[in-house]
Amino acid sequence: MKLLLLVSLAGWVLSCSALVDPVTRISRQHVETFWESWDMTHSNYGSNLSALPVVPIGSVGGFNVVNLAFADADATSFDITKCYLNPDCVTPGLYFMHDNENHDAFHRSIQAIHDAGGFVKIAYGGTNAYNPGDRLNQEELESLVVRIKNLVNDFNLDGVEFTFNVYCAGCDHPENPIYLINSLRHLMPNKIISMTYPGTLMDSYLNEVTMATFENIDYIMVEFISDNYLEKLDKMGIPRNKIVWGYIQGRYPDNVHEPCDTHDLVEGVERVKSEQLGGVMTWSINSDTYYRKDQIPDVPAGKCSLYQTGQEDGTFIRTASYHLNQL
In terms of pLDDT, which residue wins out, 62 or 97? Predict the structure, then answer.
């Protein structure tokens, strides 16, 4: 009887420890962000991947998970210049072309994030792109699955993120991202797989993708999730701890969306805690800055825009981290 009890207790301990093991899937509240890889050649806040504010889950002062944005997942041919077929290309903005020095520096950056207790995913898609894999044929989809698996393994990444665009004109093949996600889960059982949805009510496309993949998804991130959206996910059977609240800082051209004040962010984080959602996501670490050079058109330092908050560097990430983890 004692032996049976000890065996059961050991199994319980192992299952609990797996929740925080760096090589297993995340299931704890966390702070997540996106890194704009095309900014890596600049000297702005966030340009240097190895210098980002990373902290372990449960700590304050930085994020826990970063997504490398964005890899190409909507190409229509086997053109060798396409990022998803070229082993030198991580994202279209992170392209080594046999540049061993930058290749090695990227490896070191990933290791630095891991050493700080963080996680790194490669992000496919984007709100200005076609939905992941939507325009690929079956042969191309199979090649993309292998490419993603190899890239994750080669760079010791922690998983993959698929970012969807609800306004994707001509996207009518939900079976394609379904194939990508379910195939990758089979090949990468201990890696993170997440999806990001725009903050509008889910259409039939996203509904079909969600229902066919949610058992293989670690969590879904939704920009400014509404009560109606949350209720719909509830009715679909998505557990609350698999829903991450997304926040996009910066002024948008319509001048209506202008969250360069942390008030809305703090309210959102408190909602995450009270409703026991999976965590908080921000777009992006690069725009979480007082001044971002190389903007077109240029925006003065300290001014709120689409590309900068005008507040002290890292204000939004630190705020999210503090309010999520304070007792």
Answer: 62
